[in-house]
């Protein structure tokens, strides 16, 4: 008799005749954490949507055995009733409702008269959070009161309130700080110890190594390998994911760096909700032609606010001067920034980078529609020729340029956003967390693209929370701490992660 809680056998799934899954297997035991690894577009999320009945029985091929019995669910409600609960990469909480209301949404306890029993709901939510070692969270407060990391933990509590036997975590730490990641991993370990099984999907292979018992690797919709994590070192997992050796994840290439082309002088950003607080305080720097300038700092340091102000996208009051080729620019909106040759890939692609229901190709050309317009009409032949070139350049995996971009994996959505911002042929390209939620293969392609662009004379500003990435790619590193510029380092043999972190946490007055 099988000792597996879940067995997925030979799963197939097609979209418009294109196979997204081609005979994939997955097995999970009670209390086991399986790391599911693969590049963007490999089929990981599609596979989990099959399992959780987002794609109902009959729309896919193969067999699912749950507790040794065939599972033929037609809705998420059915899979949740069986004990299979998925936590998506994008949080599914309602900010205005309380923590307790979010946890029991649609399953609220009722009084004898049929009204919601708020007292019981709050007590049940508080007990659940205490059992999960999350008793510090006030269940009566709105979810919006808590930061993203805490909200991710609330999502897990919501899942466990549904009596989850198998918890699916899809990129759960993509927007978490290091300390929040440690809390989440500890929570998963606790769940495993109490018999809850997990499927953990992440591009951060060090997390897979830390939490998974076994690893399943898929590539291009096909099963590649499975095995104990102890027998699958990270380089081997990467090789299986991408189908080639990637011993150097940061393909640093020599390139000429010229004179200063861009300057930011005295940039100051006030907090939109509290104008007496400065999110960015009098930051100045220069950017050279053909240079990759990395911006490092702790979460909340003001990095995103700084680059958003440069791009005319900051939501609060801000001041300072921006110069291109020595000429002062007046940038009051992203449209004006693009017109001046400054483009930006935002940190939150879902909220700021894409139009979800619009086709992949149309998302790419949004920034240059005027180029294809004549007498008020769009020349579709020219537009689609440009779209084809852009898709080929970044190897965006899509069944069709007309497919809604929301159907693409996160990494391919990111490639499309980068393509959109390359269409205007900018002089300065700002990349805010360009590889967040992107697999190692796509990261490598983005890095190669960055070096190709600076060789052509473009200048790049890259914000990243990953210090190895900052040091592996940048020519020079700015360090921001509490809104202040705390370091400007040439990225040579003397620069270390320790120097960057020390600068990030040391106030400028002390550093001086």
Summarize this entry quickly:
The protein is α/β, with parallel strands linked by helices. It has 18 helices and 22 strands.
- Number of helices in the DSSP assignment: 18
Overall geometry:
globular
Number of strand elements: 22
How would you classify the helix and strand content by structural class? alpha/beta
3D architecture notes:
With 512 residues, the protein is of the alpha/beta class. The protein has 3 domains: 6-242, 3-Layer(aba) Sandwich (Rossmann fold); 248-341 and 426-512, Rossmann fold (3-Layer(aba) Sandwich), CATH 3.40.50.300; 349-425, no CATH class. Helix content is 33%, strand content 25%. The protein has 18 helices and 22 strands. It has helices at residues 44-51, 76-82, 99-103, 118-131, 148-160, 178-193, 205-211, 234-242, 303-310, 334-339, 349-353, 360-365, 380-393, 410-422, 440-455, 467-473, 497-505, 508-511, and strands at residues 6-15, 18-28, 33-37, 61-66, 69-70, 84-87, 166-170, 197-201, 214-219, 222-228, 260-270, 278-288, 292-296, 318-324, 327-329, 342-345, 373-374, 377-378, 428-432, 459-463, 476-481, 484-490. The strands form 5 sheets. It has a 6-stranded mixed β-sheet with strand order 6-7-8-3-9-10, with helices on both faces. A hairpin with a 2-residue loop joins strand 9 and strand 10 (222-228). The longest helix is centred in the middle third of the chain and has 16 residues, at 178-193.
């Amino acid at each position: 008799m099988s000792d597996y809680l879940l067995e997925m056998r030979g799963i197939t799934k097609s979209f418009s005749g294109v196979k997204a899954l081609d005979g994939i297997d997955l097995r999970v035991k009670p209390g086991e954490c399986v790391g599911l690894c693969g590049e963007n577009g490999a089929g990981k999320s599609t596979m989990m949507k099959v399992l959780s009945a987002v794609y109902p029985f009959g729309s896919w091929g193969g067999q699912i055995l749950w507790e040794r019995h065939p599972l033929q669910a037609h809705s998420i409600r059915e899979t949740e009733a069986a004990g299979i609960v998925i936590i998506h990469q994008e949080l599914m909480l309602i900010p205005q409702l309380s923590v307790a209301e979010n946890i029991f949404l649609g399953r609220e306890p009722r009084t004898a008269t049929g009204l919601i029993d708020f007292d019981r709901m709050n007590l049940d939510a508080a007990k659940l959070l205490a059992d999960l070692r999350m008793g510090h969270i006030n269940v009566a407060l709105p979810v919006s009161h808590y930061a993203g990391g805490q909200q991710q933990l609330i999502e897990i509590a919501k899942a466990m309130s549904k009596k989850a036997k198998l918890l699916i975590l899809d990129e759960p730490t993509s927007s978490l700080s290091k300390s929040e990641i440690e809390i989440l991993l500890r929570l998963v370990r606790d769940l495993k110890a109490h018999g809850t099984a997990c499927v953990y999907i992440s591009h951060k292979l060090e997390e897979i190594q830390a939490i998974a018992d076994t690893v399943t690797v898929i590539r291009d919709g096909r099963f590649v390998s499975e095995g104990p994590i102890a027998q699958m070192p990270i380089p081997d997992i990467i090789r299986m994911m991408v189908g080639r050796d990637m011993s150097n994840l940061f393909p640093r290439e020599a390139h000429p760096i010229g004179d200063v082309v861009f300057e930011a002088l005295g940039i100051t950003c006030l907090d939109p909700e509290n104008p007496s607080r400065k999110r960015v305080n009098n930051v100045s720097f220069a950017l050279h032609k053909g240079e990759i300038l990395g911006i490092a700092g702790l979460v909340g340091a003001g990095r995103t606010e700084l680059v958003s102000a440069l791009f005319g996208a900051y939501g609060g009051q801000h001041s300072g001067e921006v110069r291109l080729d020595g000429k002062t620019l007046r940038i009051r909106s992203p449209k004006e920034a693009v017109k001046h040759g400054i483009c930006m890939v935002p940190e939150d692609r879902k909220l700021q980078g894409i139009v979800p229901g619009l086709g992949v190709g149309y998302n790419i050309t949004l920034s240059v529609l005027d180029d294809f317009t004549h007498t008020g009409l769009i020349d579709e032949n020219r537009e689609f020729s440009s779209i084809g070139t852009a898709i080929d350049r970044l190897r965006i995996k899509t069944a069709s340029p007309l497919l809604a971009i929301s159907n693409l994996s996160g990494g391919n959505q990111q490639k499309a956003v980068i393509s959109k911002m390359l269409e205007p042929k900018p002089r300065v390209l700002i990349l805010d967390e360009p590889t967040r939620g992107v697999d190692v293969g796509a990261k490598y392609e983005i890095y190669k693209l960055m070096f190709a662009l600076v060789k052509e004379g473009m200048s790049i500003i890259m914000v990243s929370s990953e210090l190895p990435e900052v040091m592996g790619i940048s020519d020079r590193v700015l360090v921001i701490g509490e809104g202040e510029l705390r370091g400007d380092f040439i990225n040579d043999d003397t620069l270390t992660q320790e120097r960057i972190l020390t600068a990030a946490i040391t106030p400028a007055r002390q550093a001086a």
